[in-house]
Specification:
Elements (H helix, E strand, L loop, with lengths): L6 H65 L2 H8 L6 H19 L5 E8 L4 E3 L14 H9 L3 E7 L10 E10 L6 E10 L1 H7 L8 E5 L5 E4 L5 H14 L4 E9 L2 E9 L6 E7 H33 L4 H15 L14 H39 L4 H16 L3 H19 L5 E3 H19 L3 E6 L8 E3 L4 H15 L3 E10 L2 E8 L6 H13 L8 H14 L4 E7 L3 E9 L7
Parallel strand pairs: 12-14
Antiparallel strand pairs: 1-2, 1-5, 3-4, 4-5, 6-7, 6-10, 8-9, 9-10, 11-13, 14-15, 15-17, 16-17
Helix pairs in contact: 1-5, 1-7, 8-9, 10-11, 11-12
């Protein structure tokens, strides 16, 4: 018989209570794990669809870009304005000449299958050598629609090209109007074909859980599927999206397709109203976790049986030693980790005492390691903040490099990579806050070199700083944010070409830089508002964050008598004057 007031009975009761708590904890942790897995699946679908959408958009936008480029070609517009040549020989010669030009454009675009120019005067130019479907396209509905609306038209994926006899490939086409640069009338259309297999290559990356992806039209109807042509499945998808009025913001949500619960994410593809959709079933998401759950349950059952046996046999011998354990543990609860549990027995309680002592030593080591890790983490976070760069600028630069690689402009790629490397090296400067004016100007030159790849048509620059100032110190990244501000809020917003100038002159013990532009300029009210923000150090205005940051750092290191001053006239441009002391050998 068991005395229910004995330590043995109490220990057994504690054990069973603990076992129940563990079971409850398992249920809670299981639900948390399911939620975490669901979040992983959600993130997977969202990120994959966003990437597929981005890559698909690149393929289709490249087709639009090529169509726009061809439609603006001056020589082609001349041929579409004039009547066709009278003789077949002249007409053949004309076609061969412009077919060659289109073929030249086509061979540098990986995903474009064909480029065709169809004039209202009956002219036909094409990059493909395939046989034409017909000699007259002006009566086609898509031709008439674009001529009438003057807007580009996307044709859903369809077998083969509408222009040549090519039935082997599923094709997506954009029909683009050729607007006369002289009279603005519509001279014809440019048709650019994209093979749908280009989209398959994008989607071959797949979803983490082996889902399926689709392209829907503006009415949420499936017009393309990466894997399945099952009509019943496509009808079920169409019905599900129609009934649920699906959201296309890219967030993951639940939907029922064919009686099965699924997770989906959808995003608008471009201005044509199409969407990309990724779908996975709940069963695919949770199948691996179900196997893990059964394994955990089995392990808990085995552990429970073994634990009951040991608890029953060990409870008789731990009544006295357990008091020492309890007393020592209370000391630990109070934060005293210098205690030692001294129990000489060799049974389970003795082992518990040894394990307890080892645990205390390990906790002390872990606490010391945690303290050291926290110090290292704080230091790393500080260095990360000091070394922060503009991810948007980096993205645009890498995108430009990617574009130049695709266009075969390897000489420019080398210049861009060299400029980007120098730009980042000076941005980091081994953690120093001060660099020489020579380094700062090199930093600005590399920034301008990179930006000119994107804004070459509207941006010119001049740097006229006397060499006598090159050896003086300047706070790192003082001039570059001002040049960036002049480009984006001066030259770019004006919408026409402009010049950014950097000059400097000595004024006693000071150096005064001037960063000026011939851009949009500022009104008197806006100039006053900017000066107030500079005086008050407001840093939550996204349009002025860079220059306010420069002002704060100058005040911090040199004093409030130094800093920025602005002059501006609407339509004439803006000048920013930067005053710093002549200083050599600055630390930090």
């Amino acid at each position: 018989m068991i005395n229910f007031k004995s330590i043995k009975a109490k220990m057994l009761a504690y054990f069973f209570s603990l076992f129940i708590i563990l079971l409850i904890s398992f249920v809670i942790f299981y639900q948390m794990a399911v939620s975490a897995l669901y979040r992983v699946a959600t993130d997977s679908v969202e990120k994959t669809i966003q990437q597929i959408n981005k890559d698909t958009y690149k393929v289709l936008s490249e087709a639009t870009r090529i169509a726009d480029n061809v439609s603006r070609d001056g020589e082609i517009q001349v041929q579409l304005r004039n009547p066709l040549p009278d003789s077949q020989q002249e007409m053949y010669k004309q076609r061969m000449n412009y077919n060659y030009n289109l073929n030249f454009k086509n061979q540098y675009t990986v995903d474009i299958d064909g480029i065709y120019v169809l004039g209202r005067n009956g002219a036909i130019f094409r990059s493909s050598k395939g046989t034409l479907r017909k000699q007259e396209f002006r009566e086609e509905e898509w031709f008439k629609q674009v001529i009438e609306t003057r807007e580009e038209l996307w044709l859903a994926p369809h077998p083969g090209s509408d222009i040549i006899q090519n039935l082997d490939y599923l094709t997506i086409s954009v029909v683009y109007p050729v607007k006369d640069r002289i009279s603005s009338r519509i001279l014809g259309v440019v048709v650019v074909d994209v093979r749908a297999e280009s989209l398959n290559k994008i989607e071959d990356n797949g979803l983490v859980f082996e889902g399926k992806s689709y392209i829907l039209d503006e009415d949420d109807k499936v017009i393309y599927s990466d894997q399945s042509n099952d009509e019943e499945e496509i009808d079920a998808v169409n019905h599900a999206f129609h009934e649920n009025q699906a959201d296309h913001t890219g967030t993951a949500d639940k939907i029922e397709i064919g009686g099965k619960a699924c997770l989906y994410s959808s995003m608008y593809l471009s201005n044509n109203g199409w969407k990309t959709v990724g779908i996975i079933s709940d069963r695919q998401v949770f199948a691996p976790f179900e196997r893990l759950r059964m394994a955990i349950i089995f392990a808990i059952l085995v552990f429970g049986i073994i634990a009951v046996i040991f608890a029953w046999k060990g409870a008789d011998n731990v009544s006295e030693p357990i008091k020492k354990v309890r007393t020592t543990m209370k000391q630990v609860e109070k934060g005293d980790f210098n205690v030692q549990l001294k129990i000489a027995s060799q049974d389970e309680v003795g082992e518990l005492a040894q394990s307890f002592n080892h645990m205390i030593e390990k906790i002390k080591r872990l606490m010391a390691q945690e303290q050291e890790s926290q110090e290292k983490l704080r230091y790393a976070e500080l260095k990360a903040l000091q070394s922060q760069i503009n991810p948007h600028f980096l993205y645009n630069t890498l995108d430009s490099i990617n574009w130049m690689v695709r266009m075969g402009r390897n000489d420019k790629v080398e210049e861009m990579i060299d400029a980007l490397s120098t730009f980042f090296r000076i941005s980091l400067s081994k953690g120093r806050h001060f660099i020489s004016i020579r380094e700062e100007l090199i930093h600005v030159e590399k920034y301008i070199m990179i930006q000119k790849v994107r804004y070459e048509r509207i941006m010119e620059s001049e740097i006229c700083v006397p060499e006598e100032f090159f050896g003086y110190d300047i706070i790192k990244m003082t001039l570059q944010p001002l040049v960036e501000n002049a480009l984006y809020h001066g030259i770019k917003e004006k919408g026409e070409g402009g010049v950014i100038r950097i000059t400097a002159e000595g004024q006693g013990d000071n150096i005064v830089f001037c960063v000026s532009d011939t851009g949009l300029g500022m009104s008197k009210e806006k100039l006053e508002k900017l000066q107030i923000m500079m005086d008050q150090g407001i840093d939550h205005d996204p349009d002025a964050y860079g220059i306010i940051n420069v002002q704060k750092r100058i005040h911090m290191y040199f004093g409030t008598e130094y800093g920025l001053r602005f002059e501006s006239e609407p339509g004439s441009g803006t000048s920013v004057y930067v005053t710093i002391p002549k200083r050599i050998g600055g630390k930090g």
